[in-house]
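2024-03-11 09:14:02 DEBUG pipeline.ingest accepted 1 chain
2024-03-11 09:14:02 DEBUG pipeline.ingest length=352
2024-03-11 09:14:03 DEBUG pipeline.predict start
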Amino acid sequence: MNPHEFQQFLLGWYDRAGRKDLPWQQERTPYRVWVSEIMLQQTQVSTVIPFFERFMEAFPSLEVLAKAEIDQVLHLWAGLGYYSRARNLHRAAQQVCNLYHNRFPDQLQILCDLPGVGRSTAGAILSLAFDRPFPILDGNVKRLWARLHGIETWSGESSTQRRLWGLSERYLPAKRAADYTQALMDFGATVCTRSRPECDSCPFQDACRAYKDGLVGKIPVPRPKRSKPVRNSYWLLLVDEQSRLYLERRPTTGVWGGLWSFPCWDSRTALEKHCLEIGIASHAMKWLRPRRHTFTHFQLEYTPVLAKMTLPPSTIKDKPSCWIASANEPEVAVPTPVRKLLREFGSHNMLT
């Protein structure tokens, strides 16, 4: 299929069935497009929408976001995952305000130099916000190109990446760049889906190599399987006389950087040693069942232990910390497993 024919088919489909009422498509600005594209990295549209709306209400402009405290940003991001995106968003807002006088840049290399912005995200911003023809290559587009051209190699291989980028560049239109880019993403998300694609209604059925060869279910080729390592962690749920729970702020780098969490150790022995140091005997500790949380590259198996704190709180404050009431939604940014434990503790007395 030649590029002009592909563009006509895709834009015709978009005019009939594309999504045109997404929140970031209303009052479209470079700032709103940028925030939405960062949120949409590895996250579905339906999940992003409520987070985007709350984020825009709190940070309606680039300047407001740049001046905000990182705790505010992380708090509104809590539950969306991949928290480095929020930290990068905040840093990038400050960088744009300082270097470009609050004006969002419209040059590819400058955008790629911003924290958290790669080539595909930069291309999406330039296309959607400035209506300029730049290629993108997100997961939806990779899947479309792979099926259309019968590419039977994993997209993570460098040679396959080069081929996929070449196709994104080849099919670019001279006009309607914003509609075309949105159409690419929508088509992959709603028609050429990973499972149960709607091949019967696909306008590219006659040209699709994967469909002709009966390989739709096998393309795109998945990442070669590797077993995820398991990391063990032991969490101290410290409760004071007012039934509040103790949280510490994590380092700004690493897993859940900058978020608030329960103190944790790599071994049960290390946790018990710390408890003895602050006056909690082992018989006064209640071990809960182990739980598991999945990250992209590893599994975290964490075992919580409950303990009642009888000493003054000041005796354990050797880092940024706080005591929070589990009955209420935390006012600080906490990762999902911590939020679940807080709710579990608040719903019934786990100390009995």
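2024-03-11 09:14:41 DEBUG pipeline.report The two ends are 68 Å apart (CA to CA).
2024-03-11 09:14:41 DEBUG pipeline.predict end
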